[in-house]
Every structure is written in structure tokens, then in C-alpha cells.
Specification:
Layout (H helix, E strand, L loop, with lengths): L3 H49 L4 E11 L2 E9 L1 H24 L6 H20 L3 H19 L6 H32 L4 H10 L4 H20 L8 H4 L5 H9 L4 H9 L1 H4 L3 H23 L4 H21 L3 H28 L12 H4 L1 H15 L5 H15 E3 L2 H4 L2 H31 L6 H5 L6 H26 L26 E3 L6 H24 L3 H8 L1 H11 L3 H35 L1 H16 L6 H18 L2
Antiparallel strand pairs: 1-2, 3-4
Helix pairs in contact: 1-2, 1-3, 2-3, 2-9, 2-14, 2-21, 3-4, 4-5, 5-7, 7-10, 9-14, 10-13, 10-14, 12-13, 12-19, 13-14, 13-17, 13-19, 14-16, 14-17, 14-21, 16-19, 16-21, 17-21, 19-22, 23-24, 25-26
Length: 653
Amino acid sequence: MYLLPIFFMFLSFFFTFFFGKYIGNYKNHLINITFVAVSTLFCYLIFFEVSFLSLPCYIKLTDWIVFDIFNVYWSFIFDSLTVSMLIVIMTISLCAHIYSISYMEQDPHNVRFMSYLSLFTFFMLILVTANNLIQLFIGWEGVGICSYLLINFWYTRVGANKSSIMAVFTNKVGDISLLFAFAIIFQLFKSFDFNIIFSIVSVGINNDYFYLNYYICFLMLIGAVAKSAQVGLHFWLPEAMEGPTPVSSLIHAATMVTAGVFLIVRSSFLFEEIPSILVWISFFGSLTTFFGSTVGLFQYDIKKIIAYSTCSQLGYMFLSCGLSSYYNSMYHLINHAFFKALLFLTAGYIIHAISNEQDLRKMGGLLKKLPLASMMIFIGSLSLMGFPYTSGFFSKEKIVELFYNKLIYNYEIIQYLKYFYFFQFLAMFSIIITICYSVKMYIYLFLNKFNGYKQYVFNLHYGSFFLISPLVFLSYLSIISGYLLNDLMIGIGTDFWKYSLFISVQENNLFNINSGFYLFNFEFIKYIRKIPLILTFYFIFVFFVFFYWLKNFFLYLRLSTNWMNNLFIFLNRKYLFFTKNIIYPLIDIMNYSSLNYTFKLFDKGLIEILGPYGIAKKTSSLIKITSHLQTGLIYHYSGFIILGLISYIFLVI
């Protein structure tokens, strides 16, 4: 039963890709959705058995690479961490598949799209169920390639080409870092198997371990930063909006970007031993939270606003990991997946309804025309803002409260204390900006006067059952998932995570006191619990007043002084100095170097000369030259014989 979801997702891809065009769209969709639905059902059964019955499962399928001390097996692990990810991946994937039936109905390459979606989900399942690093890396690379195929699905568009290439190249930075980390891990532990590495870390080894583990953790962190679009390697994620909307929901909610967070949580036993790396994780998390929210506030493309919102929320997950609260990070990842998928799919529904328009400034007044969409955006935005009793309230506010809950008892961490106050400021300020752009998006979409073209209204059309049912299902999950999973995953005394997470401060032995944090749960201290509540209500009211009744205030403010207008342009262009003056020149240098050195030296040089093409060409040239010696004249041949004899006499004798 445990391997059936993986097997069925591969079958879904196989049948759709190779036979879908012969059996027609209806039968293709029927087979595809059946496989995905059955896989989702089995994932829920696995979740019940592993989590509620406390029966983790380890499966060794077969040998793969076995020689000397290097042994890699096809093995799978099903613990609390894995099954939690399975639920998220398969639920969002099922919604995306059902949604795509209607959304991609008119596309001539519908079959290819559905097969890519199934393959994307298959590789993500490989990643989260892997019991060794090599198998995990296969899933890691697989989701990267599938993201390229899906972002570039409409390959005739130049924007899609550029965005997909940017996604691949950015992720290659993380992939290379990850390979270096794996090399050091094998040199240190002589194995890639998680169980063996866990065992060695738990008993402790020589002093070289802590020296090398710093580099292991730092390189793995770079890999996670690239995959989860943290600041510095973030720019591929908003550009991924060039793909169809179901792809955006799958990448941003359940698959691609969650892989980096999953890697850190899975490797928590390594990160907990290096306090300075935890500070780096908090740094990337808080900075990304601030960066994503500030840029998202000044965007007008509805999908890009939600995309930068994803960057911001991923920053909260990193921040939680940096504070040694991996369970809070996973809890927020699960809740975030539901309301972010809801926001993306609803945005696609609105774009689909009004002639593929994505600019907020050309929308408005859709409350009466698209009441269901307004309700879905309202629920998703409330959850994103952390409104009380929505799923985001239960998970995101817990992460912000971690700053009040920590007790630092390690001297090495105390020197970083000033940085944590800065991280706390960024996280709290980002909450306010998140509320701002959520209110702005809702008012621009539904409450302002319509500002688009007439044909948008004349051509307005509503979605079918396949387009609407995933939205309704995800809206329920966006409301109740936080409440349902709160006590199970982060409640006091819960043993849900068992040994799937390694948090050193929860142990009593001396080996595990290196982390430097002790987390108190201040759930019942009323003053701390009131902080996010007051912030949310107050700023929702303030920004509603500004965007609805004083809608021209920000325009007057922007045009009042030159520096305010420059600030708007700076943020609207996504921190102009960073993208234009740093990243693009680096890309140009890499392109120039690869063309003039790597390509000309190796591809057009050594490989071409010494390869099959070069050998055949040189042989052909040599034969052509020697053929001129065959003249058919006796005195020419006798001359060659005499020349050979003379050469033999002088050189040999």
C-alpha cells in the first residue's frame, strides 16, 4: 500500500503521455483523475496508519549502486514528516488536476500538460519518501526539470522561454551546492542513508565532525535557498508565473518551493549542532519575508502579488527553522499550501473569466459579477493575513511568537542576540505589509469601479464544475485545517513528530545542548496572544480606509515629492539595484565565459576534435591526401621504395 501512490502517479504519467492522444480528452482525463484520486486516498490511509497508529514504515525495494563501501538502495521511509508532506502534495495535486480539466480545455496540447502535472507530482513523491540522499536528489532534480517543462509549456512565448531557463539556471546553483554537501557527507559518514547518518550523529564522533558539519550545513542551506526562492536566489519564482495557473498553484503551494524547507527539516539533526547556521537560516527567512512583502505591495499583476506573497511566507518557514521550531515550520507549510493554492486557482478563475487580463488596474467591480471568486479571495486573504480562527492565524502567528518564547542559554548564541531583534522587527513589519497588499488586492478586484475594457464585461463567462469544485474544497481547508491540526502537530505534549524531527533542546543528554535555544509555549499568556490579534484588526481597518475611501491618497503621496516617486519605482521594479546592477551583469559574465571558454574550448574544441565527428573528419582528410599518392606510374612507386630504403639505413642502421 505504501508504494502505491508513487506507482499510480507514474502510471498516470505513462498512460497520459504515450496513449492520451489516441484515446481522446474525455478518457484521458478519466484515467488521469482516477489514478490521482486513488493515490490521494492511499496517502490518507498511510497518514492514518503512520501518525495515529504510530507505525512508521521503512521499505527497502532493491539494490541500486553497490560496490566496496558505497551502497545505495532504492529504499523508502514513511514517518510523520513524510506522510504530512504526502497529504499536502496529493491534495493540492488532485485539485490542480481537476481544475486543469476545465482551465486547459481549449488548449491543443492538453494531454501533454496533464502528463507533465502527473510527472511533477511523481518526482515530488520520490523526494519526500527517499531514505537516502541520492534518491532524494533524483526527486530534487526531477521537480526542477518538470518545473522547466511546465513553465515553458507555452513555448512559443519568449517570456515563457526566458522564465523557464532562469528557473533552471538559478536552481542549478543550489544543486551544485547540494552535490558538494553530499561529497562531504560521504567523506565524513561513509554513507548516504539517513538512518546511518542519524545514528552516527546521535552518538557523536571526533572533533573533525563539527568542523566539516559547518560546511555541510552551509552548502545544504544554499541548496534550500535556491529551491525555496529565498532572497538572493528568489527571482525565478515570480517569473514562473509565465506558466499556466494550475502550474503556479502546484509549484507555489505543494511541490517545488516546499522542497527546500523539507530538506532543512529532514536534516534538522545536522543543523541543530551548528548554532551559527541557525542564525543564517533566520537571516534568510526574515529578510525574504520583508523583501517579498514589500515588493508584492507595489505590484499590479495579480499572479505576481500572490507569487511574492509565497516568497514572504516561505521566509516565515525558514525563520521558524532558524529558531529550532521545525514542527511550526511544517505546520505553517501545510496550512499555507491550502490557502495559497486557493488564491492561485481563484486568480486563474478570474483571469479566465475576463479575457486573460492580469492587471489589477484594469479590473474592479467584480463583486456582483463573480461573487464566488470574491468569496474565495476573501477567505484566502483572511488566512494569509492571519485573521483569527483561519488556518494562517494558527500557524503564522505561532512563528512570530517564537521570538517571545525563546530562552537563550548558550554563550555562542548570545553574541547573535542583537541580530534576532532585527529579525523580529522585519517579521513583525512584514505582517503589516501582508495585510496591506491583501486588502489592496481585494479592493482593486471587487470594490473599486470597473476600469477595464467593455469586451471584458461582454465576454465574461463562468467556470464549469471542474473549475469551481477545487476552489470550494480548498476554501474549507483554508478555514479549518489550522484548527484541526493545531493540537496534533504543535500542541503541548504531542508526540506526533516522534523521531522524524531532531530538536536538541528537547533532549536531556549533554551532547545535544549545542543549539542554544529553549522554547517556551506562551499560549496561555494573554498579553502575547493579543499582539497579532490587535495588529490584524487594526491594520485591516486602517488599510481599508486608505484604499477604499482615500484611494487617491497614495497617488498624491507618490507624486508629492521626487524621492517618494523614486521609492515607488524602486520597489515596483523589485529592488532595482539588486536585479539590474548585480544579478544581470553576473548572468552576462557567466554567458560570456561559457561561450568563449567552456563552449569553444570543450564543445567546439576538444570534444569535437577527439570525438566521433573529429575522428571521422580527420580520417577522411587523411585518406583524401594519401589518395593523391596513387598515381599509377612505376617510377613514382620505385622512388618511394628507394626513399624508404635510404630512411631505413640512416634512421635504423
